[in-house]
Each structure stands twice: as C-alpha cells, then as structure tokens.
Target: 2,3-bisphosphoglycerate-dependent phosphoglycerate mutase
Amino acid sequence: MRRQKGFPIVRAKANPARFSVTTKAIMPKLILLRHGQSQWNLENRFTGWWDVGLTDQGVAEAKAAGVLLKDRGVLPTVAFTSLQTRAIKTLNLALEEAGRLWIPVTKDWRLNERHYGGLTGLDKQETRERHGDEQVHIWRRSFDVPPPEMEPGSPFDLAADPRYAGIDIPRTESLKLTIERVLPYWKAAILPVLASGETVIISAHGNSLRALVKHLSGISDEDITGLEIPTGQPIIYDFDDKMVPGARYYLKDA
Ligand SMILES: O=C(O)[C@H](O)COP(=O)(O)O
Model:
C-alpha cells in the first residue's frame, strides 16, 4: 500500500453497521420523464430530432415534476437524457427543484425522439387533411411503418449539427427502428447503473420512452399503438433484487 506523506495507514476494520447496510436488499428505482410541453407540441408540428425549446407551460411542467420528486422523496442519484434541448432543460429544471442539480448526467443521441423523417416541421392537422387520418395515425403510432424519408438538403436536415458529428443520422424512424437504438443503450449503459442500486432518471421523449416502456412492461407490438406518454409526468418502475421491473405507475398516484 502506498503511503501519502502525513497520512497514517488506517486499516479497514469490519464495521457491523456498514456491513448491515451493504447487505440490505437493493431495490433500484427508475424514473421516466417525458419533456414538458415544447414549442412544436404547442404548434402541433411533427418534431422528431428537430431541436425546439419548452413553452412556459413546459417549464412549469418540468418544475412541477421536480417538486413532486422532492415531495415524494424519490430523489434521483444518476441521470440520462438525449441530445435535445427540450429533454435536457426539463431534466435540469426538475433536478433543480428536487435539489439534485449536482448528480451525474449522461447525454446520448440514442435517447432522442424518433426521427420523423419527411414529416418533420409539418403541421399535424394539415398533414391529416392532406393524407387522411388513417395514414397519419399509421405514421404516428404503427409499430413498424416509418414516415417518408427526409430529403437530403431539407431545411430540417441535421447533418451539419455538431452534436451529431460522427453519428449516422437516420432519415426516418418507426417505433421499431427507435427501439433498435434505445434498447441496446438501455442494456449497455443504463441497466448496469440501475442494478448497482442507483435511482435513475431518464428525461427523454414520447417515442423513445414508449420504446422503453414497451420493453419493461412487456407490451405487444399491437397494444403499443394505444400507449401515450404525457409530458412532464414522472413514471416509476421499482425493480426487485433480480432486476425484474414491477408494474409502472405515475408518481402523482403513489
Ligand atoms: O416528435 C414529435 O412530434 C412529438 O414529440 C411526438 O409526436 P407524436 O405524438 O406524433 O409521436
């Protein structure tokens, strides 16, 4: 053992109190938080990977989520979010209210919203009038039908955005394709942290969170079409000591 000058060597003794803590069953908690209302949620435009800010209502929703975490004593110790401003801001506002701005935060594109392809920027109602309700519902909620691809050179093309340097930006994504990048990230980066006993918060998006919920709650490809994730409402999963998630619930109902 190397000894630093001026510091005596202290040999660790078995500490019964410490021992009882380390053998306590670890019951990890996962908090899923969809960003607060965004400017394009308000304007009813397809957003996907396009970066938009929060509305005043979105800011209030994010802060309320943080107050709820604090009031219920569900205090995150580690955070993950996407590379998108609306999720990052929501996380920061919620953590600030919860007194947890200091926890480690990892940002990764794999938690981004599903890419809305050629629909990005379009008005959802005008798109319904043009293509019909059924087609738009298929694009929005089907499991594996992606929207039309984004044309190269589109004003919403993010190829020059430095945050995506080195990333093969999708041209469009269905929920299935979104799952194909969210789940490997969940398994490799988030699950091990959760399994070590941390209380993890993921601040992300309607469809990247639907991808996770589908997996964690074992929802079928058919039934996932009916699942909506509300903005700014913390969803909780309690895991048992074998890392099996319990039923999900809204923190406000706990
Ligand atoms: O990207 C978007 O437009 C929204 O965040 C989610 O849209 P959706 O409700 O059409 O999936």
About this structure: The longest strand covers residues 29-34. The pocket of 3-phosphoglyceric acid is lined by residues 46-48, 113, 116, 140, 205-207 (CB under 6 Å).
